[in-house]
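G.,

No rush on this.
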Amino acid sequence: MVQRGLVESREKAKAMIMAGLVRVGDAKADKAGHLFPESAEIHLKAPHLPFVSRGGIKLEGAIKHFSLDVQSRVLLDVGASTGGFTDCLLKRGAEKVIAIDVGYGQFAWMLRQDPRVTLMEKTNMTLMEKTNIRYLTPDGLGIVARGAVIDVSFISLKLVIPAVSRLLEDRAFILALIKPQFEVGKGKIGKGGVVRDYSSGTVAGYSEVIS
């Protein structure tokens, strides 16, 4: 896809494949590592993704819905992964984005080269006993941010939000993606990982955190 000029980067090609937007011949391409003949016809359902991953599309919708102003702000992207949220924030005028992720090597190359981005990999927002993961503190960040976006997995936001709040100025915003399966506890997750009754307990938990 990159060699044919259909997309500008491997990261964007992978994101489009994962989004189900690519067909090779008559079959949908579902894995970036599959090999096809050089003569194979490649069709895109959409000309391109506006961001390096689908996460940027989700965040853009939320920013519009809540009428958030990110222009000229220093912001945190917690759980940055490939950088979809970071890309969206920059395209909407953020002055600087500090991208934080506990993992390593996922962040899009084009964003790594952007002087407006500070990437902090192998970095945890909560104190955990992992010797190869650093725990981020306000002193370690070196700057007070004016807002944060959060997309994390395998941990409750009730643990993450207080840690993020310490890194923000007063009256900063937090926009977090809620994943019910990581909020309700194992005992309330049904067959196939589906959470059917979670709203009351989850809302009560967040009310406690916010207060």
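When you get to it, here's the other one too:
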Amino acid sequence: MSTADEILVLAEKFSLYFTIVIFVTGTIGNLLNFGVLTTSKRFRSNQCAFYLIIESIVDTCQLSIIFIIYILPFIYGFSPGNIFIVWCKLKNILPQVFRLLSTSMVCFAAFDQFLCTNPQCSMRRISSIQLARRLTLTAICIWTIHGIPYAIFYQIIPSNGCIITNTNLIHYYSYFYYPILHGLFPILTSCLFSLLAYRNVRHLVRRQVAVVRRRLDRQLTAMVFLRVIFFVLLLTPYTIYRIYSLNVLVSITDLGPYAVDQLIYSIMASLINLNYSTETKDEQNFSDDDLICPITQEIFRDPVRAADGFVYERDAISRWILQKGTSPLTRKPLRIDELRPDEKIRHLARRRRRSTVSYDARNDTVSLPPLRLVPRATNQISPIPVRPCQTVPRVPRVECSKKRMVKLLFLLFSICTIVGPIVGMVLGMLSLYYYRGKVQFIIT
């Protein structure tokens, strides 16, 4: 077996095994996302959670299609796409539509978090569940229409297999689809709005925002920000490779460069497929706001979880239920016998009270943190230097945040600008090393 044949076998096995692993883990992760976001009362009516739910559904469909595409040649011993015209068209239409839908949901989620955390009330009013549904329906229609040329111009050529037969469509994918529509535009859009949302969340403490709403915005922004990081890291290499492969043509008859190209494609395709298996975790990192009762605005002493999913102080929520009979946050009916103690928050609140000043309304007492005495000889005490008072101008934090955001965007753009040509030159040198004779273009 020659070196080219060994590389082809390695690329085929790598694609098959890695696809199986991604399909299993990704499907489990997406189902967990779907279950958490649909069953939790905090996310059930939230528009950002709606985008993440649609993305989980689309990613599950995408992983299923990719798994079928890779497993069929292994079962039958040949590629059905090179024989059956219907499968030739479907295996190229469906992954593209699902890929663009998943990309759109990431961008929509980042944009929605920017609107929800915006300090201007007019901007926050734009974000709604109706807008989320309209944008999702519009994206489904647009990307379905966008995939129609695939159904028209993908044909089976006996010598080359299932390829695009229209030169103008190849130019469209070479100069617009992969560089801009599937590359630079979603990367910059998701990065920009996620950074702006992160900046807005840092200033939520200054605004008069409810503790529960502040906690929800913080969790959703962290989830979206983490999703955008994985999205950018996994999409950038594949976009660079596709731009390279559409401009450096490799023939299937030249086994050397074709084997190297297939191995590189297998690695890059595995990275982009990994993008559909990332699990957006809803980590319960309790902050100071999570340990404060929304009714008394004091640190918990006897926390209980009500039927609406929120935690309250037992005495406060009992009096509230006896007086009004509904939840103070969701206005749904509550019952005292449905209150359940939350030991985890009780433990965290007790530890927090030991390190800060707290007030006990039941006993009308104030608890102080313990003093830490450090033994020190009297002869080692040095006089405290007295410095003249100086007026230091206060710099607004907003300006610092804007400068930091500009620096991050400039750094990201610089990395993409530097890494892109380097990867392209490396791939080009690998192709030129094995290049022999005239080459023909094949889209796999």
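Residues 3-276+402-434 form a domain with the Rhopdopsin 7-helix transmembrane proteins fold (CATH 1.20.1070.10). Strands lie at 154-157, 161-164, 303-305, 311-313, 340-341, 358-360, 365-367.

Enjoy the weekend,
O.
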